[in-house]
Design brief:
Layout: H1 2-22, E1 41-43, E2 50-52, E3 66-69, E4 77-80, H2 84-87, E5 100-101, E6 108-109, E7 129-132, E8 137-140, E9 159-162, E10 165-168, E11 195-206, E12 217-227, E13 243-246, E14 252-254, E15 261-267, E16 270-283, E17 288-295, E18 301-306
């Protein structure tokens, strides 16, 4: 009699386990909102699959056993995967053989997920990613490395040395009206042109002789810092072709041909790094200016400057 009770108990447990394993027989983890997921899950904003929330690693299944922040904001915590074979043991779907571990977001996905609408801030990306607001895509965050000096130094192309650490060079956001048309196509992964890493105001001249002929002319003095990788910056301005200023009407001006370059200085001991002193004319009533700069083949930079 006792044996019969034990057998009935094991059968009940096995049936319960099977029901839990199938989790209602879901065939896909795809979602567009949290309402598409079950209790204890949320819809991943980029991968658009249901992911399990957690507090510690102990809350996570073997298929995704790391309890980590969904994005750089620190919350919420979700279960993240490490390998595709582990994802294929996910018991939330009836057939896990189609699942794989996303390399971008570290979550199990079955390939039926619709493409994300695009990001507008780092908070919408995975913890190890940043949002490229120009392309509205999440990109892997460069590994933080130490450096010394200015310009590129030991950093990767598209980065520069800032406070002894490698940081991404600035790139004009998609909303910058200076580059609303004719925006240079630049990518730190595939481009090779000069990289601008700083645009700063160095002064403001009222009734400047640099803007002679204008009505009540004022001049913003602007310093642009940039490095190149193919060769040293030339020793004279004759070799500084293809350096442009872009105004808010998206009109491009060749800085040399327009006479906007005052002087430039190469960094001692690193001739691939230099700064360029330019000026921009504005009516005397203006206290700010939004300036766009780029070198051919390099990153477009949009900077708001104040008197």
């Amino acid at each position: 009699m006792q044996l019969r009770k034990m057998m009935l108990m094991f059968a009940a447990l096995s049936a319960a386990s099977l029901m839990m394993a199938c989790d209602g027989g879901r065939t896909s983890l795809a979602c567009s909102s949290d309402g598409d997921c079950i209790e204890g899950e949320i819809c991943h904003p980029q991968a658009q699959v249901c992911v399990q929330t957690c507090t510690t690693n102990l809350d996570c299944p073997t298929s995704a056993k790391r309890c980590e922040a969904l994005s750089g904001t620190g919350t919420p915590l979700i279960c993240k995967c490490d390998t595709t074979p582990l994802c294929q043991g996910d018991t939330r779907v009836s057939d896990a053989s189609t699942l794989s571990c996303s390399t971008s977001y570290s979550v199990c996905t079955d390939g039926t997920t619709p493409a994300p609408a695009g990001c507008t801030s780092d908070a919408q990306c995975a913890a190890n990613q940043t949002c490229n607001t120009a392309t509205k895509t999440c990109e892997n965050r460069p590994a933080e490395t130490t450096c010394s000096g200015s310009g590129q130094t030991t950093c990767s192309y598209g980065q520069y040395c800032s406070s002894s650490k490698c940081a991404p060079a600035p790139v004009a956001e998609a909303s910058c009206e200076n580059f609303s048309t004719g925006r240079p196509a630049w990518s730190s992964a595939s481009s090779s042109g000069p990289v601008i890493y700083s645009v700063e105001s160095t002064g403001y001249e009222v009734n400047s002789n640099k803007c002679a002929g204008a009505t009540n002319p004022d001049a913003f003095l602007v310093r642009v810092r940039a490095y190149r990788t193919d060769a040293d910056w030339p020793s004279t301005r004759a070799g500084l072709a293809q350096f442009f200023y872009v105004n808010t009407a998206a009109r491009q001006f060749d800085i040399l041909n327009e006479g906007l370059l005052l002087n430039f200085t190469r960094t001692s001991g690193n001739l691939k790094d230099a700064y360029f002193d330019t000026y921009l004319c504005r009516p005397s009533g203006s206290t700010t200016i939004q300036a766009g700069y780029f070198f051919t083949g390099g990153n477009p930079v949009c900077q708001q400057l104040r008197r």
